[in-house]
Amino acid sequence: MTMQERRPRDRGPKGRVLDDAALAEVRELLGGRERRRDLLIEFLHLIQDRYGCLSAAHLRALAEEMRLAQAEVYEVATFYDHFDVVKEGEGRPAPLTIRVCDSISCMLAGAEHLLGDLAAEVDPRTIRVMRAPCIGRCATAPAARIGDREVDHATGRGLLHMAREGDTEVVVPDYAGLDAYRAAGGYRLLQKVRDGALATDAIIEIMEHAGLRGLGGAGFPAGKKWGFVRSYPGPRLMSINGDEGEPGTFKDRIYLESDPHRTFEGALIAAHAVEAERIYFYMRDEYPAVLAILRAEIAALEAAGIVQPGFIELRRGAGAYICGEESAMLESIEGKRGMPRHRPPYIAEVGLFGRPTLNHNVETLWWIRDIVEKGPEWFAAQGKPGHQGIRSWSVSGRVKEPGVKLAPAGVTVRELIEDYCGGMADGHEFKAYLPGGASGGILPASMGDMELDFGGELAKQGAFVGSHAVVVLSQADNIRDVTLNLMKFFKHESCGKCTPCREGTEKLVTLLREEGAPNETAMRDLETVMRDSSICGLGQAAPNPVNHLLTHFRDDL
Ligand SMILES: Cc1cc2nc3c(=O)[nH]c(=O)nc-3n(C[C@H](O)[C@H](O)[C@H](O)COP(=O)(O)O)c2cc1C
Ligand code: SF4
């Protein structure tokens, strides 16, 4: 008996009718696209965008169309927050979704009130209100998203008005497109590099001399990384990390919403240096305006002949902070669950599709043109004594003028507050700060004169600057509440691959929630085991705020 003869009986008549309709719909949606395994997440987006959810019938049809096991499609779809998997017999989500950010800066700005207001007012049959981890609008908190429209300083009344008016489409801000960028000298440097007028070794030397370090969080020297990747036999690939999920971070969004070609030019120079065959640009789904910009500008680059069609492939994340970790991001680009890989081997040697891969953060690439044009000394000299370079600090919380601040490496938080942010917000006194988003720990104001950079004094305090997301706290903020907020974030975002992180984040949330004095012995034990034995940086850094709560903020316990 052939497979074809067996199938109808196995499925049963009802399922067969449903499947056939779903299969036709999936086929129509996918059109002439290649049924490549690595495009699975892109295809899930197509279905979710068209039908508002992923029904069991569509998932089954997609598995069939891609010749994948149903379980494989299901496990990928359910891993990502932005996919709504609806089982047979379950109701579909309401037609409109409002996501309210409940991460730290939005919590300080009243996200809980906003959630309460919405819950009291909306009809859940027409509007679904959801909590969302950081959506990268911390300077204009509380932030929300209604449909594809990103909303600053959100209020319940404002959001409901937008829902009534149908004001739910993406709004793309004004930015420098390809023509404007070229008119200002853009892509001349790339041409020089491609013509051989500037040799690869010379660019690598410039990057090393400038002291450009990876600005996604780890601070690895950029030039050195290019050298490593080049040392492994090709073919090689490149990825751009636009996941920007660390709570408090929004610099990459600001750069891509104003001057995206600066990052593209940097990326094309880096790709040339390591002879990458293709660039995969991984962009988080939380940034619909950036996604629209990238689609338009990649098409413009292709039309202008600056890149071959398909050389830059845009990949859309689906709501998972862990996909910012570079090996998890590569898994996601391959169409899988975003779970970090064990290392070694490092991705410079065995990366995307098993090939040597150069991966960079959006901002790291953004600086390349300026560094080459203005010289490495120009860049390096902008740091404080003993520090190299200028950095983009995403500052939010209790300051008068939050935003992305260009300030030297080695700047102190007190200087950021006073010299760059117009001082503390009215009625607030400086009490504490997060030097590096949720992961970098919480330090007291008494450590406000510490020079902020990778390593150094911060590392001695068990803290780090990471993606340079500084959240300023005041006497109005209880540090145990702040720690609980951060830990809830980690619990939600832990990918579950290893036990110390999966169980540890959960247990720390439970311990922090308990009434009365917390069980410090249990917390310290968890801190040790998570730090020492988690697979990736998420689990290793998650207990940082707990350590600092117990060390520096005993009055708040
Ligand atoms: C849990 C976790 C989340 C991360 N999220 C991001 C991110 O959103 N964006 C980013 O560029 N790097 C992120 N990183 C760092 C990346 O793994 C990697 O170091 C970086 O993309 C390398 O680029 P760079 O050298 O230009 O910084 C994250 C790391 C960890 C452990
Ligand atoms: S540390 Fe956490 S996020 Fe990282 S692999 Fe383990 S479970 Fe996943």
What's the number of helices? 26
Shape: globular
Q: How many strands appear in the DSSP assignment?
A: 15
**C-alpha end-to-end distance:** 70 Å
- Beta-strand proportion: 5-15%
Report on the biggest sheet: 5 strands, mixed
* Average pLDDT taken over every residue: 96
Counting copies of identical and different chains, the oligomeric state is single chain
Stretches where pLDDT is under 50 for at least 5 consecutive residues are 1-17
Structural class per helix/strand content?
A: alpha/beta
The radius of gyration is: 24 Å
Strand order of the largest sheet: 12-11-15-13-14
Molecules bound to protein: flavin mononucleotide, iron/sulfur cluster
Q: Could you estimate the helical fraction of the residues in percent?
A: 40-55%
Any overview of this molecule?
By secondary structure, the chain is an alpha/beta fold. Helix content is 46%, strand content 13%. It contains 26 helices and 15 strands. Strands 12-11-15-13-14 form a 5-stranded mixed β-sheet. Helix 7 packs across helix 8 and helix 22 packs antiparallel against helix 23. The longest helix has 18 residues, at 13-30. The radius of gyration is 24 Å and the shape is globular. The N and C termini lie far apart (70 Å). Mean pLDDT is 96; it is low at 1-17. Bound molecules: flavin mononucleotide and iron/sulfur cluster (SF4). The site of flavin mononucleotide has 22 residues, from strand 10 and helix 25. Iron/sulfur cluster is lined by residues 322, 340, 494-498, 501-502, 534-536, 538-539.
